[in-house]
Amino acid sequence: MGGTTRGPDGGAAGTNYPVEVRHGRLAASITLVLLLGLIGSLAGPGWSPQPLGHTLVPETAGTAIGSDALTPPVGTYEVARAVVGVRLAPDVTVQATVASPVGAPGPRPAMLFMHGAGTATHENFRDITTALASAGIVTMVPDKRADTYTTRERDYPEMAQDYLQSFAVLRGWPGVDPDRVGIYGESEGAMSAPIAAAGNDDVAFVVLVSAPVLPLREQGALAADSYLREVGVPDRMLRAIPRLVGGSLPGGGFEYFDFDVSRYQQHMTQPVLMVYGTQDYSMPIVQGAELLISDLAEAGNEQYTVRYYDGANHGIRIGKDLAPGFTQDLARWTLGLPETADAPPRIAGAEPVQAFRADPVDRPRWYASGDMIVYTFLVGLGLLALAAVAALAGQAPRLARRRPSAMAPPLGRYTAALSLATVATWVVFLAYLVSIASLALNYRTNALIVQGGWIVVQIVGILAAALLVLTVDGAWRRRRAPRGRVTMGRAGWASLTCAVAGSVVLLVNAAYWGVFPAVL
């Protein structure tokens, strides 16, 4: 008479009370999701790149190199190739391929190629070197030195010195005019090319193709922003850019991200040809050219030529083929020096578009930079693993036919579901990031993956947050419930505590990377 029936979690089982419990849990879940979204917004740094607001206006739509200099066109000569060894250090020798025009008269100009991050061997650049050699230019492509070049550590001044060893061999190559030997630096190679050329009278000219110009951290942030906007990701995802690019990365290293090549460009006195493709979303195609021209002016050097190839990508290619006119323009500019060094049109081709400025990137706070990124993630996973171990240990007494030290129902189900949903949040989020990266790098869009995938990520994250509320509420009610037939053992409480703590760590971590809906 007048007694209250209690459910398995210790809560009252009256007619109205379960509805109140459900409403309370729903309110707590919404509050938690909003709190996680607020954490993601306030944890910093934010991301608000500034519009560039202007462009470089080409003088002509055509890219042809001006001047009255007479130069043989691409395809004039047959091409011969030779592979030679170049010693860079007493115990380091690299191979290099030299392509030469067969039967070309007199000492010829020559060009040394410096690799970008995507190439490494003397077999690269074959179509470009073939075209140049067929116009009468000797080319050399050495292997990239591998023992001092890693993802984590790169020394651009040291790389420039290594390339200059190959440069010396090329200057002495039979049929080469040593006073007309220059450097071709593509992408990352355009970081070492100005170092090799600065104050070096032996370098006759410099070609910079798809050059970052700015420090790689700034260029990388711009590239990530451009690619992600092109793919169409939610604005929430853009906040991850400075959080990933702006700080130190786990394990240290990557100091070359902040290397500034500008101080070397300010000591270049050679003629410079700068080349970009208008579909190169990874480079500051307007800002880079402006900065180079400004740096050359510091050295009193006005010998610059800039070309933009319509529809060409980072490799100055449209699809798999080199942009029309690229090798012909490159050959004519090189062969026509010094007349072509400042011949009009100075800036020509398709009009470049760079929507946002590449500026210094804000740094993440101490709790989300470098090794802390890994530590917090491993702590969260470790706690979930301990929860599983404690749950198994709680069942061990069954082997001796004794009462297990397990969780009371339904907390065992809640805890297991919480752990799985938390892990699933990260698995789905990482799979989404991989899919987005694949779309961006392959210049594709897919609304189902981009928008639909993002909805799935948020749904799984919200489910995990709701299960966290359910588990904590159930544990609280179990703690306050009178002792009954079903009790919680120490192993059960340990498993529940580890699962809740690990889930909190991983969900807050996911909130930092933007998984939960933005509040601000």
Give a description of the structure.
With 520 residues, this protein is α/β, with parallel strands linked by helices. The chain folds into 2 domains: 17-43 and 366-512, no CATH class; 78-224 and 252-349, Rossmann fold (3-Layer(aba) Sandwich), CATH 3.40.50. It contains 14 helices and 11 strands. It has helices at residues 17-42, 126-134, 156-171, 189-197, 216-231, 235-238, 240-245, 262-265, 287-298, 326-335, 371-395, 411-441, 447-480, 490-512, and strands at 78-89, 92-102, 108-114, 138-142, 176-186, 206-209, 272-277, 304-309, 317-318, 321-322, 347-349. Helix 4 links the parallel strand 5 (176-186) and strand 6 (206-209). Helix 1 packs across helix 14 and helix 5 (216-231) crosses helix 12. The longest helix is centred in the last third of the chain and has 34 residues, at 447-480. The chain is elongated, with a radius of gyration of 31 Å.
Topology:
Blueprint: H1 17-42, E1 78-89, E2 92-102, E3 108-114, H2 126-134, E4 138-142, H3 156-171, E5 176-186, H4 189-197, E6 206-209, H5 216-231, H6 235-238, H7 240-245, H8 262-265, E7 272-277, H9 287-298, E8 304-309, E9 317-318, E10 321-322, H10 326-335, E11 347-349, H11 371-395, H12 411-441, H13 447-480, H14 490-512
Parallel strand pairs: 3-4, 3-5, 5-6, 6-7, 7-8, 8-11
Antiparallel strand pairs: 1-2, 2-4, 9-10
Helix pairs in contact: 1-13, 1-14, 3-4, 5-12, 11-14, 12-13, 12-14, 13-14
